[in-house]
Amino acid sequence: MSSLFPTYQRFDLTVKEAKGSWIIDEHDERYLDFVSGIAVCNLGHGDEDVLHAVQTQLEKVWHTSNLYHLPLQEEVAKLLVKNSDGDAVFFCNSGAEANEAAIKLARKHTGKSKIITFKQSFHGRTFATMSATGQEKIHSGFGPLLPSFDYLPYNDVNSLDKLVDHDIAAIMLEVVQGEGGVLPASQEFMQKVEETCQRTGALLIIDEVQTGIGRTGKPFAYQHFPVSPDIITSAKGLGNGFPVGAMIGKKSLIESFQPGSHGSTFGGNPLAMSAAKATLEKIMNEKFLEVVEKKATYLVEQLKTELNQNSLIKEIRGIGLMIGIECSEPVAPIIDLLRKNKLLVLSAGPNVIRLLPPLNVSIEEIEQCIAIMKQTLLSSEYSVVAPIQG
Ligand SMILES: *Cc1c(COP(=O)(O)O)cnc(C)c1O
């Protein structure tokens, strides 16, 4: 009997080690990893620069708490501020914690309570972030939820027009709904979100936990849209596998958090900061991000050419290397077969296959992915092919 709470439905794969875009299992089988720890290992597994940075920091100091100054926190914060519309950063340890900080700051700053979020959104599993999440199945059994969260239909301009309430602290959203099915916002919708914030006095919070840190080919995904968020939250890819989260806020909000307003024992831990610094120095670079966009274009083009004639496939969508393949039937058995054929992908809702390859995935690896998908999907009952060697 397992000694773990059964909170996860685990796939039939036991990880021994991982390097670059590959995971090696207990039987030394190699799997092409287009999951990246759920958009976490954006530089692949065991990136040499991040590894070196953490190793160096391990020898210096692991933890001293936030009772003392830590120059590394300032350095990472400067990198985040430089690459976003924000001016100050609060560090924490996860996406949910970053969103918690955002919700607390929005309420404290505005003195208002209501937070507007969207159906099919995902913002985390803590009480506030679960309450912010617009999915019945995530709430089930945990009520009563935190009050004052309202869920509007995503990409629906009319429902924003109807918002006349002036007790709204913030509108909070993902610009590509990740867990909700890899659904990108439309330009029109984002413009309306920005206008609605201005009209009602609500702050704009963009949850970039999954979309941020180069995933879409920009430092943060909101930069594809005509908006300037008051608060941005980040986590997943920020430490390339080292747990770390951040809330980035605009100048006007800084004074609303004072000593004692909020905090975290581990937040901004030196090891996490060393990982984040090395990760950001590599990813927040125009040339690196240009290559991400090129690879993303190539991957989507190849998927469309090779798979689109299949009646199973309804739509291929996404931004950058956050790609959803919507199918006409549940994808769980397809994902199982892809894994048997040595390609790891994940779902986003019941009918969408989600691809989240490392941002530095090679063209050859993209071609291997396409070959496995093609062979698996195009046969009428899918088929187990001979593993492709990487
Ligand atoms: C994963 C995710 C979260 C939660 O992050 P955790 O680190 O698991 O707490 C929040 N928002 C979005 C958009 C996510 O994808």
Model description:
By secondary structure, the chain is α/β, with parallel strands linked by helices. It folds into two domains: 15-39 and 286-376, Aspartate Aminotransferase, domain 1 (Alpha-Beta Complex), CATH 3.90.1150; 48-283, Aspartate Aminotransferase, domain 2, CATH 3.40.640. 35% of the residues lie in helices and 18% in strands. The chain has twelve helices and 17 strands. The chain has helices at 36-39, 48-60, 71-82, 95-110, 127-132, 136-139, 157-161, 187-200, 270-283, 286-307, 332-340, 363-378; strands spanning 15-19, 22-25, 30-33, 88-92, 114-118, 149-152, 168-173, 176-177, 183-184, 203-207, 231-234, 245-249, 313-319, 322-327, 343-344, 346-347, 352-355. The protein has a seven-stranded mixed sheet, with helices on both faces. It has a four-stranded mixed sheet with strand order 1-2-3-15. The chain has a four-stranded antiparallel sheet with strand order 13-14-17-16, with helices on one face. A hairpin with a 4-residue loop joins strand 2 (22-25) and strand 3. Helix 2 (48-60) packs antiparallel against helix 9 (270-283) and helix 3 (71-82) packs parallel to helix 9. The longest helix has 22 residues, at 286-307. It is globular and about 60 Å long. The mean pLDDT is 96. The structure holds pyridoxal-5'-phosphate. Residues 94-96, 99, 122-124, 174, 178-179, 207, 209-210, 235-236 line the site of pyridoxal-5'-phosphate.
Binned, the helix content reads 25-40%
Overall average residue pLDDT? 96
- CATH fold field value of the largest domain: Aspartate Aminotransferase, domain 2
- Ranges where pLDDT stays below 50 over 5 or more residues in a row are none
Bound compounds: pyridoxal-5'-phosphate
In this structure, how is the largest beta sheet organized? 7 strands, mixed
Strand arrangement in the largest pleated sheet: 4-12-11-10-7-5-6
Q: Into how many domains do the coordinates divide?
A: 2
